[in-house]
């Protein structure tokens, strides 16, 4: 256009005079629009990618959190099962000595705070050695398992617990139970065992048990008193044994500290 104007082929006007500048300006304007549109597209693409990345990250966080909660729940369940297994007697399925020690300690503290009685029954199978000697240890083991089930069926409250104390001895823990109530439960256990015929290793057995009962209202948080409670119940068991077996004896020195109601 500049050459055409120079050789007077086209007339001289504002457009022909400043066409180059106008064209350059238009190019710059169009380039600016193109760059602005490109920037807009890039921003939209960045926002889309960022949104997808955030959404994917949030989804992964939710998935990982859910997986973590599931793993923690499973771990807690397995730990609970492991703890239960560690507190159960492998032969009889009732609680073991470890559980007994923990339970007595806990109940001693609670009964001390609430000023309520705590009773324990020590149950011993009469002449158990003769069963092993005459019929074998397999028969003796089966007798222990069935006795544990009989004792377990004699308790009704969820807070009561049957524990294997060792050998042919079991301990029944009765929180919030006074001496009269504990003696009644002990007599129920004794009479139920005596009236039940047990089938063990192809032998029909009729067992009897001797039971010593101890009951106190803990007057002191010191667990030395707990040892005295066990000692009193054990002494009562000895009296039941020496008194002819198949009977219940209540420790009088422990009973005097019990709730008189």
From TrEMBL:
It is an enzyme of class 2 (transferase). Its cofactor is Mg(2+). It catalyses: 2 GTP = 3',3'-c-di-GMP + 2 diphosphate. Its main location: membrane. InterPro entries: 7TMR_DISM_rcpt_extracell_dom1, Diguanylate_Cyclase, GGDEF_dom, Nucleotide_cyclase, Rev_trsase/Diguanyl_cyclase. It is found in: Cell inner membrane. Residues 116-253 form the GGDEF domain. GO terms for cellular component: plasma membrane. GO terms for biological process: cell adhesion involved in single-species biofilm formation; negative regulation of bacterial-type flagellum-dependent cell motility. It comes from the Bacteria. One of its GO terms (molecular function) is diguanylate cyclase activity. Its EC number is 2.7.7.65. Coiled coil: none annotated. PANTHER family: DIGUANYLATE CYCLASE DGCM-RELATED (PTHR45138:SF9), REGULATORY COMPONENTS OF SENSORY TRANSDUCTION SYSTEM (PTHR45138). This is diguanylate cyclase. It comes from Halopseudomonas xinjiangensis. The lineage of its organism: Bacteria, Pseudomonadati, Pseudomonadota, Gammaproteobacteria, Pseudomonadales.
């Amino acid at each position: 256009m500049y050459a055409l104007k120079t050789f007077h082929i086209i007339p001289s006007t504002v457009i022909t005079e400043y066409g180059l500048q106008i064209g350059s300006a238009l190019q710059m304007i169009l380039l600016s629009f193109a760059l602005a549109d490109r920037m807009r597209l890039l921003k939209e693409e960045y926002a889309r990618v960022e949104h997808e990345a955030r959404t994917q990250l949030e989804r992964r966080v939710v998935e990982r959190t859910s997986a973590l909660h599931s793993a923690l729940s499973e771990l807690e369940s397995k730990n609970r099962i492991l703890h239960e297994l560690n507190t159960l007697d492998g032969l009889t399925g009732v609680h073991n000595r470890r559980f007994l020690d923990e339970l007595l300690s806990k109940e001693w503290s609670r009964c001390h705070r609430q000023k309520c009685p705590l009773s324990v029954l020590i149950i011993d199978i009469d002449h158990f050695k003769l069963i092993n000697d005459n019929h074998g240890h397999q028969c003796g083991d089966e007798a222990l398992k069935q006795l544990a089930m009989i004792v377990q069926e004699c308790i009704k409250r969820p807070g009561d617990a049957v524990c294997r104390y060792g050998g042919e001895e079991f301990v029944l823990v009765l929180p919030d139970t006074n001496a009269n109530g504990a003696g009644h439960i002990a007599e129920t256990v004794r009479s139920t065992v005596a009236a039940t015929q047990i089938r063990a290793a192809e032998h029909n057995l009729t067992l009897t048990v001797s039971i010593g009962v101890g009951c106190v209202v803990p007057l002191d948080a010191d667990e030395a008193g707990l040892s005295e409670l066990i000692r009193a119940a054990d002494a009562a068991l000895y009296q039941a044994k020496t008194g002819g077996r198949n009977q219940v004896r209540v420790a009088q020195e422990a009973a005097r500290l019990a709730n008189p109601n």
